[in-house]
Amino acid sequence: MYRKILITTDGSTVSKHTACAGVRFAQQMGAEVLALFVAPEYQFPVYVEIVPPAYPSEDEYFEAMRRVGADHLRSIQDKSASCNLHCETLVEFSDATAQKICDVAEERGCDLIFIGSHGRSGWGQVLLGSVTNKVLSHTAKPVLVHRLLQNPVD
Questions:
Q1: How is the chain split into domains, by residue range?
Q2: 98-111: per-residue pLDDT in tens?
Q3: Which of 17, 48, 116, 123 is deepest in the core (most CB within 10 A)?
Q4: Which residues contact 72 (CB under 8 A, 6 or more apart)?
Q5: DSSP string, 71-120
Q6: 4-97+117-147: which CATH architecture?
Q7: In which element (H, E) is residue 5 found?
Q8: CB–CB of 124/133 below 8 Å?
Q9: Mean per-residue pLDDT for 114-136?
């Protein structure tokens, strides 16, 4: 049914549990996995006239975020390998995370987006915003939302 499943992570405990569930789902479907970490774009300091010496350069920032992304994606890669699934990892940069997730799913030919939800509702969801809700409203691709019913423990 699904041949390629996009699994997103932001490195949080919720997304780690979601990613693990996503890999198990991919295994059941016999699908390959595309694991995605979206990092924010580099921000120049706008509050000072000159850049402080300790402030990272654009290149340093991108390299550091690629390392952070690779660390977060490693658990998906390891879980996929233990399930004998092909897994590709990808670190992207965008301040519009939901749109980037949708774009990657389209560009890479994914059949399904597997994404987590903190399970907030009502005002908590409205005030905090939700990447998951934005993905649901910005893509025509199927989206499977994995919701944790209780708080996970690290």
A1: 4-97+117-147
A2: 999 999 999 999 99
A3: 116
A4: 9, 10, 11, 15, 37
A5: HHHHHHHHHHHHTT--EEEEEEE-S-HHHHHHHHHHHTT-SEEEEEE---
A6: 3-Layer(aba) Sandwich (3.40)
A7: strand 4-9
A8: no
A9: 69
